[in-house]
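testing teh design pipeline on a random one, pls ignore if ur not involved
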């Protein structure tokens, strides 16, 4: 996870965060996981920076916003 610019599709996210598709979508609906971005009529993705923040939060580390303070 070296470049925070760009997008991840769901299969890439599920390799990083070990949950099922249905658990991921339920977490998105509840606000536990970041909201998706529509890149096209049939293309949904998530900002890499949002996923990096989530991983930092889940691992108990500091997110990039917290490091800047």
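output:
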């Amino acid at each position: 996870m070296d470049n925070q610019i760009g997008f991840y599709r769901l299969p890439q996210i599920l390799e990083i965060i070990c949950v099922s598709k249905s658990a991921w979508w339920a977490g998105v609906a509840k606000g536990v996981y970041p909201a998706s971005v529509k890149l096209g009529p049939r293309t949904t993705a998530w900002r890499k920076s949002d996923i990096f923040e989530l991983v930092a939060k889940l691992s108990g580390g500091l997110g990039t916003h917290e490091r800047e303070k």
